[in-house]
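Hi again,

Forgot to attach this to my earlier email, sorry! This is the prediction with cytidine-5'-diphosphate bound. I've pasted everything inline since the attachment limit keeps bouncing my files.
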Amino acid sequence: MKKLTIAIDGFSSCGKSTLAKDLAKELNYIFVDSGAMYRGIAFFALQNKLIIDGVIHTDLLINRLDEINLEFVYNKEKFESDLLLNGVNISTEIRKPDVAAIVSKIAVLKEVRSKLVSTQQKLGEFGGIIMDGRDIGTVVFPKADIKLFVTADPKIRAERRFKELLLKDLNTSLVDITANLEERDLIDTTRKISPLVKAEDAIELDNSNLTRESQLQFVLDLIKERFNTL
Ligand code: CDP
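Structure tokens for the complex follow:
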């Protein structure tokens, strides 16, 4: 069977990664969380004090992009990949509120995007990949076999993220999460380069009232219908 390329885009915290992981497991494909890579660069900027009093020193960051090597390594115990920054596992750090607070401001930078988009395209060159993010169906894989645009009610999205962070012992409040999701959605949809938009040929999936299993089944049925396989 042809190894498909599946692009999943959508707003912050609407379950894209969960769906992508479930699909990758079912199809035995590679899963790439492109947002983790943007978070990795944001973490580098914080770690190297390139953000002072909330101001991102973009020139300094751009000059140092070549020092950043991001790599996904599968963790057998967690059944998911860890993100390594120059060999160091930063999977927990990138989920923290300080990274969430600045990541979208860093993701507007053209140099950051072109570095990550070319890495992402290399990861997908042989197909058999599911990647989630904001510009996957529009910019990274414009010829993807399946494109999904996932949405969910903002209140439900904030509650899901709150629970997810609690499980990871990353304490924050529902009010702060709601504000962060709103701010990131606004920046992501209005930026000049590669804004978050639904690709013309993407299928919209509102998963506000869907279980994890039913959203997975929705996509598996779609693949079956389109490619007469599974
Ligand atoms: O997990 P969540 O949906 O909250 O966000 P994420 O996928 O981890 O992405 C974090 C941020 O990275 C987004 O808010 C975007 O600003 C940026 N991003 C992007 O610009 N392009 C992508 N392909 C993926 C993420």
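The CA atoms of residues 127 and 143 lie 11 Å apart. The chain is about 45% helix and 20% strand.

That should be everything now.

G.
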